[in-house]
Write a structure and sequence with these properties.
Number of strands: 12
Order of helices and strands: EEEHEEHEEHHEHEEHEEH
Distance between the termini: 40 Å
Oligomer: single chain
Largest sheet: 5 strands, antiparallel
Mean pLDDT: 76
Strand content: 15-25%
Helix content: 10-25%
Strand order of the largest sheet: 4-5-3-7-6
Low-confidence stretches: 1-45, 142-158
Length: about 260
């Protein structure tokens, strides 16, 4: 769709000039990162739509979040949510940006092409985005209805790009609750691999606020691959994405936190 689809995509890194989301915590709780602009002048983001999310319609059915990052190249995408019903993607998505101005610019890409299809980009409300996520979570839990014990965690299909990435013993976590503790991350992995708390690194921004990301040092490459089975499972009300990472990326994140 956009040339060679087999390129390796790093964990929130760069491939073919496209930065794929180093800041994509899913917005299932209020975030301190968005400033609200209330201007309603022509082309400005209406105060009724102050949360910086847009809705896409008419996407190719083989579309991935990477394609959407490319479609909005140059804009600061925080999150992409591909809408599924009955386990199938049907051409709609929600895209959250870093602020209302970015969402304004995204609207200008309405009816531009992705592959051979033109894509509609239009405004929507925060509640629409939340309801879409909640509906999929609810749908995923139906399969465990009637079973004894707790419902199984909701699991979404793993991106094929992640299967082709080069692994080290380090994984990156993205989409974490901002208040997450190391003990919660250790517990998240406990049924798969053992992770000591001192091997968990939670970077912060320069103002001390959490980024919604973490880095986990596993015992080996094999353990890192095994731990990837937890990709897109839940911590609290958020599903967490996992990516192969590198010692260099971990050092850069630690340096930024300092």
């Amino acid at each position: 769709m956009y040339g060679h689809r087999g390129a390796l995509f790093g964990s929130g890194g760069v491939s073919d000039g496209y930065e794929i989301g180093s800041k994509r915590p899913r917005m299932m709780e209020s975030s301190p990162y968005f400033a609200v602009r209330s201007s309603t002048s022509s082309g400005a983001y209406d105060s009724r739509y102050s949360f910086p999310v847009v809705r896409l319609r008419g996407l190719p059915f083989n579309c991935t979040d990477v394609d959407i990052f490319k479609f909005f190249a140059g804009l600061d995408v925080v999150d992409v949510f591909l809408v599924n019903k009955d386990g199938r993607f049907f051409g709609e998505a929600f895209v959250v940006f870093a602020g209302p101005m970015q969402a304004d610019l995204a609207l200008r890409r309405d009816r531009q092409n992705m592959g051979r299809r033109y894509v509609e980009v239009f405004r929507c409300k925060k509640q629409d985005y939340y309801h879409a996520i909640a509906a999929e979570v609810k749908e995923g839990s139906h399969g465990s209805a009637g079973r004894r014990g707790s419902p199984l965690p909701v699991r979404r299909k793993r991106s094929p790009e992640k299967e082709r990435m080069e692994y080290t013993e380090i994984l990156k976590m993205r989409g974490l609750p901002y208040s997450v503790r190391k003990s919660e991350i250790s517990k998240f992995f406990e049924d798969t691999v053992s992770v000591e708390e001192e091997k968990i690194h939670i970077p912060c921004r320069s103002d001390g606020k959490a980024t919604g990301e973490a880095y986990v040092e596993l015992g080996s490459v094999e353990e890192a691959r095994k731990a990837m089975c937890k990709d897109k499972m839940m911590i609290g009300s958020r599903y967490v994405e996992l990516f192969p990472s590198t010692p260099e990326e971990l050092r850069r994140a630690a340096s930024r936190s300092r």
